[in-house]
Design goal:
mainly alpha; 38 helices; flat
Length: 659
């Protein structure tokens, strides 16, 4: 590009920008002119005899516009009807021009009661520094509402003079005013904290905390102080921990907000100095904070504390303990007090230290079932709950134990530990249990392994291999479980007995809830060929369910429902198929639904399906939709359906369908 061409481009760009700027200024001028015209009109409404609601809306709009020229018209309204005075005050509060604040301040001497309280509040919202002197005088007046409002307003204005006035009146004011002053000082202190003025804030918090005000206000001041004190918060926390019940509760709350690397040591140091009730609360909090450095203190409480503290400490060990806590927890898990024992068992189940697993397996291997049965039952339960695979050989050995409790505990734990590759360990016992009383435990363990298995096909393979050796009761269980497991192996096994009269009831129930569309061909075959109508109906319903619920291509769903309609023997199943058509958003589904209008029992259901599809298809296939709606109007007498069809017909665009 040559220099002359560049120059021309720059000149053109400059002219374009000038044009844009001019247009913007012209537009802005028009907007300003329009807004000024609106302000003038609204002011005229205020000065006229317009109805109350018009004046009310005018006040609201003038406040939104922030129109300074409206102040002279708004000010007189402060002394009129109380509702209109409120609207005028809110408008003046919102107008940023100083004249609005001046008008509010000058109106105070002429106002009484709630209108005066409202103006005081507005002066605070506007942070009118010029009002500080007047508000300070109001603090000492007998009008408690005005004095409380003045305290609140001074807290919002928060100039040094305003804060000083609040401090001076804190001790001598009536209690309602004193509470308002204390709350105002707390607000000032919080704002100072946000500005980084920690020292000034702490001084205010300290004065409120020492004032004769309700306990909840003093606690609020103490809370604010400890969170604001960057240098001496530890001492404040200790004082709260040694204070009354309310202060102790506050200490527990703020401890969660203080530096986590220092708080646990402070709490742990206080534990021996507290009564059992507080020890239990401190132990609970130490467990929540999870700092392992305080473990010795928690262990001591768990060993020597009174029951409430012991139970809390045992629970805490589950969060912050390691292998060092195992011996104590094992001992307490066998305690005669069920609450203590339960706390210890839960802690053992949740300890995160990997060394705990190794320790439990070693102790399980060394345990003696005949001499210490309760202890070995505990080990078996724990390795199951912690899903320690290394314990599997010991558990398998216990499957042959004569002790029923030990045998069934081992079964339950294996259900938590095994994967599908080891499922045969349980299925072998399931088909040949050592005792019939083990069957419920074996069934539950096998079920848990199967539903947890990532490789469902492997799990189904093991279940199918167990069928030939199983009793009738166990076969029932296995076939039902195959329905939960799903997959091709399971489906093939059910297909083998799908027409066996002994199993057809169970098979159709299982297939009717199959977790996927793969069961559709088998369900269709049963619906078509089964000798018993009950099972034909059940299979057909399951077939329609698959078409309705699963994500299949529209063409496949449509073919399935078309087959279901032709195969159905009862109107109930035809209705299900017609309703399912509403989920297939194609012209072909619309046409199939329209064809069902010729069946008297299906008319209302077919019409509803057509209405649902018409909404979807009208933009892209208007003529097809129009024909279907016309068929509904010809066939159906229901006034509600006809009205819906007519409404939809009116919205159908003109044009040819787009295939």
């Amino acid at each position: 590009m040559g220099r002359s061409q560049v120059r021309q481009e720059l000149v053109g760009a400059r002219l374009w920008l000038v044009g844009i700027g001019t247009a913007w200024l012209v537009g802005l001028g028009a907007q300003v002119s329009w807004a000024q015209s609106e302000v003038d009109s609204l002011i005229q409404v205020l000065r006229s005899e317009a109805p109350y609601m018009e004046k009310l809306l005018a006040c609201k709009k003038l406040g939104q516009l922030g129109a300074a020229e409206a102040v002279p018209a708004l000010t007189p309204l402060l002394f009129q009807d109380e509702r209109l005075a409120h609207a005028a005050r809110i408008a003046l509060e919102a107008i940023p021009d100083p004249s609005a604040g001046k008008a509010l301040l000058e109106s105070l001497p002429r106002l009484e009661g709630l209108p005066r309280v409202g103006v005081i509040q507005s002066l605070g919202v506007r942070r009118e520094k010029a009002a500080v002197g007047v508000l300070g005088e109001l603090l000492a007046q007998e009008d408690l509402l005005a004095a409380m409002a003045a305290a609140n307003a001074l807290g919002k204005i928060a100039t040094p003079e305003a804060v000083s006035m609040l401090e001076e009146r804190l001790a001598d004011s009536p209690m309602p005013v004193r509470k308002a002053i204390a709350n105002a000082l707390l607000e000032v202190g919080e704002n100072l904290c946000q500005e980084g003025q920690w020292v000034s804030a702490l001084q205010l918090f300290g004065k409120v905390a020492e004032a004769e005000v309700p306990p909840h206000i003093r606690l609020a001041a103490q809370r604010a102080a400890i969170l604001a004190d960057k240098e001496d918060w530890q001492s404040r926390l200790i004082r709260l921990l040694r204070g009354d019940r309310a202060e102790f509760a506050l200490a527990l709350e703020v401890a969660r907000l203080l530096p986590p690397e220092k708080v646990p040591a402070i709490l742990a140091n206080e534990v021996p100095k507290q009564d059992p009730e507080r020890q239990s609360l401190l132990a609970e909090l130490l467990g929540e904070l999870g700092d392992p450095t305080v473990l010795p203190v928690v262990l001591t409480v768990a060993q020597t504390g009174e029951k409430p503290a012991r139970v809390a400490a045992l629970k805490a060990l589950g969060r912050l303990g390691d292998v060092r806590a195992v011996s104590l927890l094992l001992k307490e898990a066998l305690h005669e007090d069920s609450e203590v024992a339960l706390a210890a068992r839960e802690a053992l189940a949740t300890l995160k230290d990997p060394a705990v697993d190794e320790e439990l397996v070693v102790r399980l291997g060394q345990s003696k079932p005949n001499t210490r049965p309760a202890e070995i039952l505990l080990f078996v339960e724990l390795v199951g709950r912690r899903r320690i695979r290394a314990a599997q050989p010991f558990l398998v050995t216990f499957l042959e134990a004569d002790d029923t409790r030990l045998r069934q505990a081992a079964i339950a734990s294996l259900g938590q530990i095994l994967g599908p590759e080891d499922l045969e360990i349980l299925t072998e016992r399931l088909v040949r249990p050592k005792a019939e009383e083990d069957l419920p435990s074996l069934k539950e363990a096998v079920r848990l392994v199967c539903i947890r298995a990532a490789d469902r096909e492997k799990a189904a393979e093991v279940l199918v291999a167990s069928l030939p050796k199983a009793s009738l009761e166990v076969k029932h269980f296995l076939y039902e479980l195959l329905g939960t497991v799903g997959g091709q192996n399971a489906l093939n096994a059910l297909a083998e007995v799908a027409f066996d009269p002994q199993w057809q009831d169970l098979v159709t129930r299982v297939l009717g809830q199959w977790p996927g569309p793969a069961a559709a061909p088998l369900l269709y075959r049963i619906a078509k060929e089964a000798a018993d109508q009950r099972f034909r109906v059940r299979a057909l319903r399951g077939y329609v369910r698959i078409a309705r619920q699963f994500d299949l291509p529209a063409e496949q769903k449509l073919a399935m429902l078309r087959s279901a309609l032709s195969l159905a023997e009862r109107d109930e199943e035809r209705i299900l198929a017609v309703q399912a058509l509403s989920r297939i958003h194609t012209v072909e589904a619309l046409e199939l639904a329209t064809a069902q209008l010729s069946h008297e029992a299906l008319k209302p259901y077919a019409a509803q399906t057509i209405l649902a599809l018409a909404e979807r298809l009208a933009p892209s296939h208007p003529e097809d939709v129009r024909r279907a709606l016309e068929a509904v109007l010809r066939s159906v007498q229901d006034p509600t359906i006809c009205k819906q069809a007519e409404t939809l017909m009116q919205g159908v665009p003109a044009g040819k369908p787009q295939r």
